[in-house]
Design goal:
The chain is α/β, with parallel strands linked by helices. 39% of the residues lie in helices and 14% in strands. The protein has an eight-stranded mixed β-sheet, sandwiched between helices. Strand 3, helix 5 and strand 4 form a beta-alpha-beta unit. It starts with 9 loop residues before the first helix and ends with a strand. The structure holds adenosine monophosphate.
């Protein structure tokens, strides 16, 4: 099925053609025709599958009909778990809706109220919002949902993870009962079913198998990291490795992406950061440089790397583990594309065990442990997270500087060294009197396998 056969308004088809989309993705092929019938829908689809267009295109099509209800509230409401995703959805709506009249706004938590109140005082077609702030406006009577025809829950599983369930349920309860509801989620489990039972009406199901990792083309490896210093040393080792020809390094925050890229550059590597604080032209330039091979190591955040399609990525390195399992699958899918093979290496510290467990249960297998000779971890990975320690550890790891100028170029496990804490680790090696050469790893290249 092509876009043209989907009965979408000509203005939408024109915008899609301008985006260069020739064929609908699998989720679009299934979800758009179903959504156009007006039925409720549950769709399991990951980020990167084209799911945004799968709900935005039918939403924009709906705006080509006249509203029969009075009032100025939105006809379409999209709820998303994060600000980044809300921004992305709004941008997508504006891109696909550029040839039609579209009055849209984004309502985000943590942002000033003034602009939001102004936007909500005008007649509006589409609101993209995070649930907490939207519910806040609803309770204060600043938004009226009586005109709502379509409610979209994007990444519903994440909204549940982030504790938004009550807000989502309250918002749905204030919308007309004959509205249409589309629920998108990377995972479909009992919680989602419960949410759907309360909010959706006899939904159709669309299941897109997206979570399978292509095990033939992507080799997954896990490197246990004692702390941040250890992670830095392993990253430096991989950056020096000749077989790492083009890599994406994933960091948890934008600041870390800048810090890691800067440090890699100072060590003589062709590295650059890619994150949401960069303007679009800087991002495009960076991606173009990566494609041309001018950049070997791209240090990115999840949001910035979404949809990133650069061929020939030899390695994906998870400097920090993603909090959400679907992000792991999305990250490692940047390599091993179009018939080539790739290696995905994850640095996992004891503070990241919960993430690892979630990922392994999501992908249905455990990730084989590897070591870099000379950079072996001092402490084994715990079986489960130690909650009390974890809080402190996770925090210091998040806030500590990614690279310390006083740290040695390489890292060697040292039983006298304090471990399990990033700042302790940073101090440990710096206090040592040993010459730097002693920290040098003995491996010639790739991390070697070690059965567990
Ligand atoms: P999403 O899963 O919505 O985050 O989309 C991932 C990326 O796929 C975005 O960059 C979209 O611009 C792109 N995309 C969406 N639909 C199509 C399509 N039919 N053909 C090519 N690219 C698409």
């Amino acid at each position: 099925m092509s876009f043209v056969n989907m009965q979408l308004a000509p203005s939408i088809l024109k915008a899609i053609a301008e985006c260069g989309y020739t064929t609908p993705t699998p989720i679009q092929k299934q979800a758009i025709p179903m959504a156009m019938t007006g039925r409720d829908l549950i769709a399991s689809a990951q980020t990167g599958t084209g799911k945004t267009a799968a709900f935005i295109l039918p939403a924009l099509h709906l705006l080509n009909t006249q509203s029969t209800a009075n009032g100025k509230g939105p006809r379409i409401l999209v709820l998303t778990p994060t600000r980044e995703l809300a921004d992305q959805v709004t941008q997508a709506a504006r891109k696909y809706g550029k040839h039609q009249r579209l009055r849209s706004t984004t309502i985000l938590g943590g942002m000033p109220y003034r602009e939001q109140l102004k936007a909500l005082s005008q007649p509006i077609d589409l609101v993209v919002a995070t649930p907490g702030r939207l519910n806040d406006h609803l309770e204060r009577g600043r938004i009226n949902l009586s005109r709502l025809e379509l409610l979209v829950l994007d990444e519903a599983d994440r909204m549940l993870d982030m504790g938004f369930i009550e807000d989502v349920e309250k918002i749905a309860a204030r919308a007309p009962s004959d509205r249409q509801t589309l629920l998108f989620s990377a995972t479909l489990d009992a919680r989602i079913e419960k949410l759907a039972r309360g909010i959706l009406n006899d939904p159709e199901m669309v299941l897109i198998a997206g979570k399978e990792v292509n095990s033939d083309s992507i080799e997954q490896r896990l490197l246990v990291a004692d702390n941040l210093v250890h992670k830095n040393s392993m990253l430096q080792h991989l950056a020096d490795d000749k077989s790492v020809t083009k890599a994406i390094v994933f960091s948890a925050t934008k600041r870390d992406a800048d810090g890691i890229a800067g440090e890699l550059r100072s060590l003589g590597h062709a590295a650059a950061a890619l994150h949401g604080d960069m303007n679009q032209s800087a991002r495009n330039r960076t991606i173009a440089d990566m494609r041309k091979g001018k950049i070997k190591l791209l240090v990115a955040t999840d949001v910035a790397a979404r949809g990133l399609d650069v061929s020939g990525i030899s390695h994906v390195i998870n400097f920090d583990m993603p909090r959400f399992a679907e992000d792991y699958v999305h990250r490692i899918g940047r390599t091993g594309r179009a018939g080539s093979s790739g290696i995905a290496i994850s640095f996992v510290s004891n503070s990241e065990i919960d993430c690892l467990k979630r990922i392994e249960s999501y992908i249905g297998r455990s990730i084989p442990h590897h070591i870099i000779p000379g950079l072996e971890p001092v402490q084994p990975l715990r079986k489960t997270a130690e909650k009390r320690k974890m809080r402190g550890q996770g925090g210091s790891e998040g806030k500590a500087r990614r690279f310390s100028s006083s740290q040695p170029k390489n890292y060697r496990g040292d039983s006298n060294r304090k471990t399990g804490n990033a700042s302790a680790g940073e101090k440990g090696p710096a206090r040592r009197k040993d010459p730097i050469v002693e920290y040098r790893s003995s491996g010639s290249g790739q991390a070697s396998g070690r059965a567990r």
